[in-house]
Amino acid sequence: MAARSIRVVLDRRPVTGGPRLLIDLSVAPAGGARAFVDGFTKGLLDSPLDDASRVSLLYDEDWAEQNEVLFAQANSRGFNVIARHVAPPGTWRARAGRGRLLRAACRETRADIVFLPREFAPRLTVPFVVMARNLYAWLPPPADSEHRLTLWLMRRSAHRSARRAARVIAVSRAIANYLPAGSASPEVIPHGCDLPAGKPVQWPRSGVLRVVMLATVAPHKGIACIIDAIALLRTEHGVSAELAIYGPVPDKSLAVSLRAQSQAVLGYDAIAGPAPLDRRSEILGAADVVAIGSSYESFCLPLVEGMRAGRAVWAPACDLVEELCGDVAVRYAEGSARSAATEMANALPSLEALGSQGIKRSDTFRWDEIAQRILYTLDRAATAR
Q1: How many other C-beta atoms are found inside a 10 Å radius of the C-beta of residue 198?
Q2: C-alpha R_g of the chain
């Protein structure tokens, strides 16, 4: 793949005065989108912004009701906060109403520029900035996918939005490389992590290596490889190891297969169900290692959360893991359970050191600094027009 011009936004100056910004935070389903809305809002509240009144924040009214304290804090800080009813994302009603909602909000706030923290932008009368955050929006759909047409339409929409955008923010260098020709050179600003710093663990802490995955049960997540790697740690390396997989289960047939696999090789069902945001610290704190099974990620928040919790992260060797974790990760050959088991067995004496290094590296992903970098990018995009 040809190299692209990618600029990482590092300027962290306080934003003082400037154009009127409309930030659309109204798409917040459970998962990565909700984590972004929560974290970005907290980051804004902690940012040294002198003129908050020029920043309008558009929320879904259900989010505003569930996060009444955050919503009130944003309002009292001086942000122009707006709550509107929004149809669930992915529905035809949502697609039809999104443009009308944003155009009305632009008129109401007299916005100079709009930020949409996702790939798809409706037709707007003011400049906008989009965010590249999902690989499936940029890569051709798999030939055997039953959702091939839907994925193709999403990719076309993302490419068109990127070409019309005043700027594109990419959550990693890894995903920035997939943006189409004709789009603005992406500016790399990662997601943040608002978990409290944990305490590294020594091996053996309890005599059992407790491994956790935070992943949607989907074919591209490499879950089967990690299940087999846990079994090989037991049989070939004499390590007593356990695995718990936390995440939504949209693919029921795959879940049946993975449950059968874990029952057969581990002796129990390793799929534990969703991990609510307010339980992630507890789940990570009970683990020794956080595992990732695939490089098919645009920005892998569990890697950052694992480092923040002081846990060793166990992931396939790829550009994204190098970008986020550097030398902190225990890396293995993707798709090889034997490589994964061998690398983890060799790393066991270093778990505490890896945890300490991970905590330091996770300081790079602070929401207050990331919020400032996004605001600075929006200001530059608005004034460059």
Answers
A1: 21
A2: 21
The pLDDT mean for the chain works out to: 89
pTM of the model: 0.88
DSSP helix/strand/coil, 225 = helix
Residue with tokens 């930020």: 115
Bridge partners, 340 (sequence order): none
Residue 246 and residue 282: Cα distance in Å, rounded?
12
Inter-residue contact 212 to 228 (CB < 8 Å)? no
pLDDT in tens, 163-189: 999 999 999 999 999 998 888 879 999
What values do phi and psi take at 364, rounded to 5?
A: -65, -20
CA dist 333 and 13 (Å) reads: 40
Q: What is the pLDDT of residues 81-135, one digit of tens each?
A: 999 988 776 666 666 678 889 999 999 999 999 999 999 999 999 999 999 999 8
Contact call for residues 351 and 288 (beta carbons, < 8 A): yes
Q: Report the candidate in 252, 288, 249 with the shortest Cα–Cα distance to residue 272.
A: 249
Query: What is the pLDDT, as a whole number, of residue 96?
Result: 67
Distance CA 288, CA 293 (A): 16
Helix (H, G, I), strand (E, B) or coil at 212: strand
Chain segment 56-92, per-residue pLDDT in tens: 999 999 999 999 999 999 999 999 999 998 877 666 6
Give me 44's structure tokens. 């804004």
User: Residue 279: how many CB atoms within 10 A of its CB?
Assistant: 11
Q: Which domains does the chain have, with CATH numbers?
A: 7-192+366-383 (3.40.50.2000), 209-365 (3.40.50.2000)
The gap between the terminal CA atoms of the chain, to the nearest Å, is 31
Q: Are 176 and 184 in contact (CB under 8 A)?
A: no
- Do you find a cis peptide bond into 204, omega within 30 degrees of 0? yes
Cβ neighbours, 10 Å, residue 29: 13
